[in-house]
Specification:
The chain has 390 residues and is of the alpha/beta class. It is built from 11 helices and 19 strands. Helix 1 packs parallel to helix 7 and helix 1 packs parallel to helix 10. Bound molecules: flavin-adenine dinucleotide.
């Protein structure tokens, strides 16, 4: 049986581990996942906003999320282990993109692309918006786009644990250790070195190390354009209810959504301040200075909010084109990459996990063709830009 060692046991590494042995007729691989922190304190999968949308600008991201939502809807049965039926708490109130006059053209272009893929999405005028969400100000909004189904949120940590428990039930071993290097034999990797000094022998190695994936690639002499980009998330309560509140992407660039009886929100820092691998410290001053005024301008009831908590996590940002990098690099025969998801990796973990497992097992994609996300585009300088990175 071929030995696979996966570096990183977050949602991506755990989804790959599950899909490698998902065929109940055959245990195809002996799988070991090396994860340095079983409490996942810095893992993006545990610090995510855990949402899923179909409103992307590229066909490949739409197709991956369409598979993601279908997987999430039936996840309880697919990933059940005996009587234990996982529940990730999926809800589907939609994403609402608000466009200023300058953003209308792009919103319309994206809408055409989404409709061509049968995404259940509708454009709305400010008047339609006001009628549907009377708690919202439409100031500065020229057009909006609302996902009518297939978009919403869930619990990311439960998702990661559901994949992990299912993979363990199939025989995958999780080893708590820090991977420190790769043992090589010419163009092949033969093992993963860990901090105890031991080497885990491998026929195949998968890099699923999230925001730290560039270090793993460098051990094989490969330049992976992925960096940790810090994102702060703030949680707050509001005395008023906002019926039907979707995940709102405001014209200011902030996003907000309900989380139980509270709300969470965040923002993408301007490019000049979006530096690589900053410490995971919450940018509290941004909430007072920028986020709260923008929240209250969009939802007047948010004048009266109370901040209840905050955290920071890394987007594992592919700085080349903001999309995942999947598969082999020509410099190494058996080191597979599943990296650079740039803020949309949780919703893509079913499609990426299944796709990478197919590459490892069959040498090519069998279900959804993910070759648009291969290393080739980077080596040939053909970026596949995703315009809708939040
Ligand atoms: C604030 C925030 C909001 C987000 N919102 C969304 C969203 O709404 N929807 C969405 O789809 N995505 C979202 N994302 C992105 C999503 O969370 C990530 O794309 C996804 O979790 C990546 O999963 P991963 O398994 O690759 O990385 P991780 O979950 O970070 O897992 C990587 C693991 O590798 C381990 N590791 C690294 N190096 C080593 C080593 N040398 N040895 C051993 N172990 C190692 C780490 O400990 C870690 O557990 C968000 C991310 C953040 C931070």
């Amino acid at each position: 049986m071929r030995r696979v060692v996966i570096i990183g046991g977050g949602a991506i590494g755990s989804a790959i581990a599950y899909f490698l042995n998902a065929d109940p007729k055959e245990k195809a691989f002996d799988v070991t996942v090396v994860e340095r922190d079983f409490s996942y304190t810095q893992a993006s999968s545990a610090l995510s906003a855990s949402s899923i949308r179909q409103q992307f600008s590229t066909a490949i991201n739409i197709e991956m999320s369409l598979y993601g939502i279908s997987f999430f809807r039936t996840l309880g049965q697919t990933l059940r282990v005996g009587d234990n039926v996982p529940d990730i708490g999926l809800v589907e109130p939609g994403y609402l993109y608000l466009a200023s006059p300058a953003g209308v053209e792009v919103l319309r272009e994206n809408h055409a692309m989404q409709r061509a893929h049968a995404v259940d999405v509708a454009l709305m005028t400010p008047d339609e918006l006001q009628a549907r969400f009377p708690w919202m100000s439409t100031e500065g909004v020229a057009l909006a786009s609302l996902g009518l189904s297939g978009e919403g949120w869930y619990d990311g940590y439960s998702l990661l644990q559901a994949f992990r428990k299912k993979a363990v039930s199939q025989g995958t071993r999780y080893v708590q250790a820090h991977a420190t290097g790769l043992q090589r034999n010419g163009a092949a990797v033969t093992g993963v070195q860990i901090d105890s000094g031991a080497t885990l022998p491998a026929d195949i190695v998968v890099n699923a190390a999230g925001a730290w994936a560039a270090k793993v690639a460098a051990w094989a002499g490969i330049d992976l354009p992925v960096h940790g980009r810090r994102r702060s998330v703030f949680s707050f309560s509001c005395p008023d209810k906002l019926p039907g509140c979707p995940l709102v992407i405001d014209t200011s660039g902030i996003w907000l959504r309900p989380e139980g009886r509270k709300f969470i929100c965040g923002f993408a820092p301007p490019a000049t301040r979006d530096l690589d691998d900053q410490p995971l410290e919450v940018e509290h001053e941004v909430f007072e200075r920028f986020i709260w005024p923008a929240l209250a301008a969009r939802v007047p009831a948010f004048e009266a909010i109370r901040m209840t908590g905050a955290w920071a996590g890394y987007y594992e940002m592919n700085v080349f084109d903001h999309n995942a990098i999947l598969g082999l690099h020509p410099a190494c025969d058996n080191l597979y990459f599943a990296n650079g998801f740039s803020g949309h990796g949780l919703q893509q973990c079913p499609a990426a996990g299944r796709g990478v497992a197919e590459l490892v097992r069959f040498g090519g994609y069998r279900s959804l063709d993910l070759s648009a996300l291969s290393f080739a585009r980077i080596l040939e300088n053909r970026p596949l830009f995703e315009k809708n990175v939040i």
